[in-house]
């Protein structure tokens, strides 16, 4: 895909999806500052939003502040805990609504997630004239999402850049 510095882009990050992918694949944390830099790739950033879940842990506030300092607007949602102990925490609808709302001001929508639930969003945005890129770890990215996107950046291809404290087996 051709990228040029005049393209207006918006970056929408499903933080939970990325966190769990990095943790499960590599025992590491995501370097979101580097992810944003790769997603923007020298183009005109209009908006970068990181969607997080508040669970009440002590270290999460420091993490949220680090996202803010890295250039993200941070949107928070409380972890839902149901009577039987089940927990629910996702931003799928919120990310989709924001992407659709902001898309008319963008040339490129970048979704930082591997979740295949976003395929209809990708198709809708493309129908509206936006290019849609996906940034995620290849091993945990839906094949349907990869196929639907105009471009995919596989973070696994450069683990040293995109991971913090990976296990030794994650080197490359």
From TrEMBL:
Residue span, NYN domain: 8-155
GO molecular function: RNA nuclease activity
Alphabetical list of InterPro entries matching this protein: LabA, NYN
CDD domains recorded: PIN_LabA
Protein name: NYN domain-containing protein
Organism encoding this protein: Candidatus Uhrbacteria bacterium RIFCSPLOWO2_01_FULL_47_25
């Amino acid at each position: 895909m051709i990228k040029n510095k005049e393209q207006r882009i918006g970056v929408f990050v499903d933080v939970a999806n990325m966190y769990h992918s990095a943790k499960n694949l590599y025992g590491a944390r995501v370097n979101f500052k580097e992810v944003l830099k790769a997603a923007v790739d020298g183009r005109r950033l209009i908006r970068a939003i990181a969607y997080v879940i508040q669970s009440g842990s002590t270290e999460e506030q420091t993490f949220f502040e680090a996202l803010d300092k890295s250039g993200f607007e941070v949107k928070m949602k409380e972890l839902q805990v149901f009577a039987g102990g089940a927990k629910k925490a996702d931003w799928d609808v919120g990310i989709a609504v924001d992407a659709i709302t902001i898309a008319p001001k963008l040339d490129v929508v970048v979704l930082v997630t591997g979740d295949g639930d976003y395929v209809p969003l990708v198709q809708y945005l493309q129908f509206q004239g936006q290019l849609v890129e996906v940034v995620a770890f290849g091993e945990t990215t839906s094949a349907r999402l990869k196929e639907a996107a105009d471009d995919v950046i596989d973070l696994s291809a450069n683990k040293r850049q995109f991971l913090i404290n990976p296990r030794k087996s994650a080197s490359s």
